[in-house]
Amino acid sequence: MSSDEESIDDEGMPNLGEYEGDRNEAEERHGKGKAKLPNGDEYEGEYSHGKRHGEGIYKFQGGGKYIGSYVNGVKHGEGTFLYPDGSKYEGYWANDVKQGRGKYTYVNGDTYEGEWADNQRHGQGVYNYAATGSKYEGLWMQGKMEQAGELIHANHRYVGGFAQSQPSGKGKYIFDNGCQLRGNYELVEVLVEPDNEEEETFTVLEPKWRVEELSAID
């Protein structure tokens, strides 16, 4: 669909919905205006040559809302998206997807603040777990904790490698009492018993911590 969510009426003509606002000499929406789209969505803000361009507010019929910048009809630049479930994203967009730095607040109170690419956590970022007070600081790739990171808890922290959001490879646990454990995470097969008796048991790979050294921090 076009920037104004075109539909086709009974006579085969484009239906752009209702519009009040500025137009240019070509009768395109240009300047500031307010539109109600055929699908029930509403937009109020700036236009350029018929497309949303500049600052505006887009209200979705389903309950969501975007407040921010548009370029050539798509979300681009800085903006805030309020989702129907109560979650929220505040940050940068590029061609209608989360791109660059931003903060996402989830329904359960968790937050992620850091880099995004193509709508996924990607790059350096911090994820805070509301229920436990723990947090992860480190690298993300396509929405998963990857490579080097630090998982911080109330009285200790883990520093080391990650793969697919699981600890992986060499790392160490550092405790507030002055001790640290160096070791290695290895993937081991774990047998899972299904809840339904008609289903078969299956195995999954889970990280297993193996201690290599216990020492005191100087």
UniProtKB/TrEMBL annotation:
Gene3D superfamilies named in the record: Histone H3 K4-specific methyltransferase SET7/9 N-terminal domain (2.20.110.10)
Gene Ontology cellular component terms for the protein in this record: motile cilium; nucleus
Comp. bias intervals (Acidic residues): 1-12
Protein name according to UniProt: Radial spoke head 1-like protein
One GO term (biological process): spermatid development
Source superkingdom: Eukaryota
Record-linked Pfam families: MORN
Organism: Acropora cervicornis (Staghorn coral)
UniProt biased composition (Basic and acidic residues): 20-30
Taxonomic lineage: Eukaryota, Metazoa, Cnidaria, Anthozoa, Hexacorallia
Keywords (A to Z) from UniProt: Repeat
Region of interest (Disordered), ranges: 1-50
